[in-house]
Amino acid sequence: MNIEQLEQIGLNRNEAVVYLGLLKNGNSSASNLVKFLGIHRNIVYDNLEKLIEKGLVSYITEENKKIFISQESDSLLEFLDSEKEKINKKVVVAKELMSEIDTYKTKSYVEQSAEIFRGKNGIKKVLTLILKSKENLIMGMTNKSTELLGDLYWKNFNAKVKFLKIKEKMLLNSSFEKIGFFFENNKNIEYKILPKEFDQVTETIIFENQVAIFIYTDQPIVFLIKDEEFYKSSKKQFEFFWKLCK
User: Fold this and answer.
1) Are 71 and 2 contacting, i.e. CB atoms less than 8 angstroms apart?
2) pLDDT tens digits, residue range 70-101?
3) How many CA atoms lie within 13 Å of 158's alpha carbon, on the beta-carbon side?
4) Which H helix or E strand runs over 117?
5) Where do you find CATH 3.30.870.10 in the chain?
6) Which pLDDT does position 108 carry in this prediction?
7) pLDDT tens across 136-156, in order?
């Protein structure tokens, strides 16, 4: 057993040091533990109290002196159970706060805005937003998107699209390779293939008065634009290409 393992189960550094010191030194007064560990007395006293609160240490009084005792090994599981209860309570509070946060966000909603998301996590964040839409128009789907996020991610993503019954129309670049992988057994997805001369450098997804423009480079980036006029214009452009393609 070492300090790092004790930190992994939820003790802070000083708690772990004092607890391990008490185990090694055996039942001990605080002053003896200070000598054994060679650290400041305040650290030992404060963290003994914290360990008592966590149920990992207790004490008895002998000749008006507290003798601290480490509890049995199963006290670690009891400690984790109590931590789990605290986390569950925090989750309940967080869920209550979520509705208030959404209210504030709604009040501060701006009809026109633009955001930039970077890296794989930024890409995934925007794709998560797209899953909340009932209908998506996608133009310029490229192999780079599948290469960046991997087949497993897209398999799970497409399963969610199918489960949520999201309707999608897709205009694929002529070089796109995984048609069967993406659109197999999903009647809510329609696709057409762009003529080679109209292959897109960017991948654009149009949804719910928003337009997401994905640039799949070594440092991928997404521009998320919320603007009704730009949304309408992008939708008309998509519809023009849709009629043009086979």
Assistant:
1) no
2) 888 888 888 888 888 888 888 888 888 888 88
3) 20
4) strand 113-118
5) 110-244
6) 57
7) 999 988 888 888 888 888 888
Q: Model confidence at 181, in pLDDT bands (50, 70, 90)?
A: low
Distance CA 75, CA 53 (A): 12
What is the chain's alpha carbon radius of gyration, rounded to the nearest angstrom? 29
DSSP 20: H
The correct answer on CATH 1.10.10.10 for the domain covering 3-75 is yes
Domain with CATH 1.10.10.10 in the chain: 3-75
What pLDDT shows up at residue 214?
Answer: 93
Query: Buried b / exposed e across 199-235, counting CB within 10 Å, b at 16+?
Result: bbeebbbbbebbbbbbebeeebbbbbbbbeebbeebe
Phi-psi region of 221 (alpha: psi -120 to 50; beta: other; left: phi over 0): beta
* pTM (predicted TM-score): 0.54
Give the Cα separation of 209 and 191 in Å (integer).
21
pLDDT at position 137, please? 94
- Residue 183 sits at the vertex; the CA angle it makes with 177 and 185, to the nearest 5 degrees, is 140
Superfamily of domain 110-244: Endonuclease Chain A (3.30.870.10)
Alpha-carbon distance values, 20 to 3, 14, 50, 70, 228 (Å): 7, 10, 14, 9, 62
Say what the pLDDT of residue 184 is.
65
